Amino acid sequence: MTAQHHSEYSCLPRPVRNQSQTPKIDTYLIGQILKNKRKAKGLTQEQASDLLHLSLRTVRNHEYYGIRDIVVLDRICRFYGIELVDLIRNAQS
User: Fold this and answer.
1) Which pLDDT score is estimated for 61?
2) Is 92 helix (H, G, I), strand (E, B) or coil?
3) Which among 8, 20, 55, 66 could disulfide-bond with 31, CB atoms 3.0 to 4.6 Å apart, if both were Cys?
4) Residue 25 gets which letter from DSSP?
5) Cα torsion for 84, 86, 87, 89, to the nearest 10°?
6) Domain boundaries, the chain
7) What is the pLDDT of residue 7?
8) Are 63 and 31 in contact (CB under 8 A)?
C-alpha cells in the first residue's frame, strides 16, 4: 500500500470493539447439551449418526467440541427438537 493510498483512508474512523461486551460461547456446554439430548432419546452415538445420516465421527466431534459446522449443528438441533439460536443463547457467558 502506498503512502498516498493509505492517507486516503486515514480519515475514516476505526471500528471500536469492546471485547468485554462480546459474548463468549461455551462450546463444551453445547456439546454437553447435545449429548444429554441424545441420551434422553435413548440413543447411542452410532444410532444418532445413522438416523442423522452423519458419520459417527461427526456426531462425536459435535458432542465433544460443540460447534464444528454450523449447518450440521442446526441439523442435529432440529433432530433433537431444539432451536439452534436457543442452544447458542444458553451457552453464552
Assistant:
1) 94
2) strand
3) 66
4) B
5) 120
6) 23-90
7) 55
8) yes
pTM of the predicted protein model: 0.73
Fold of 23-90: 434 Repressor (Amino-terminal Domain) (1.10.260)
- Grid cell locating 60: 462425536
Residue with cell 459435535: 62
3 φ/ψ angles, rounded to the nearest 5 degrees: -60, -40
Tens digit of pLDDT per residue, the chain (93 long)? Answer: 555 555 555 565 665 565 566 778 888 999 999 999 999 999 999 999 999 999 999 999 999 988 888 999 999 999 999 999 999 988 886
Question: In angstroms, rounded to a whole number, what is the distance separating the alpha carbons of residues 7 and 43?
Answer: 61
93, 29 contact by CB (below 8 A)? no
76 grid coordinates: 442435529
Amino acid of residue 32: Q
